[in-house]
Amino acid sequence: MSFVALACLLVALDGDTLRCGAERIRLIGIDAPELPGHCAKGRDCAPGDPTAAQASLAALAKGSAEIERDGVDDYGRTLARVRVNGTELSCAQLKKGHAVYRSEWDPYGNVTVACGLQVVEPYVTPVRSEARRTKRHSPSDQGVFRNCAAARAAGAAPLYRGQPGYGAHMDGDGDGIACEPYRGR
């Protein structure tokens, strides 16, 4: 498969779905937070702010778009990778923290390669050069930071459930956000 130009105005329906005319396009490999009322009962939906994820995708979707189609899902949406002005939208949403990577939604590993991800099940971490990696500031062999001090030192805090380096042991209030700043009451 290869990328082909899209001749339409892209509209962000949420943080991982676009509309191009009548075609609904689901970005492969990522899961963004669901808008209120859209997370199916029993489903493990991505944490975070759905409005911010949608706004981020809307901003990224402005410009010259290309698509690499990869089938259709159970909801009739086109499964695809989309680039706008050369930026891979799945990668940009991951980098901005508005989505989590789902390997089961990236069957050929195309998003893994395009985004430079290193899969350490069940977490995903960006591939970094060994020169920049230090024992103290990098996630352990399980892909989880040892503590919040290490996550902050690496510039990774706060961490959201499903993101690289997240560990429940750092999420004191159990809200899915680890190493968050104290907000007071």
TrEMBL record:
Highest taxon of source: Bacteria
Ranges where the Excalibur calcium-binding domain occurs: 144-180
SMART domains: Excalibur (SM00894)
Protein name: Excalibur calcium-binding domain protein
Source species: Sphingomonas mucosissima
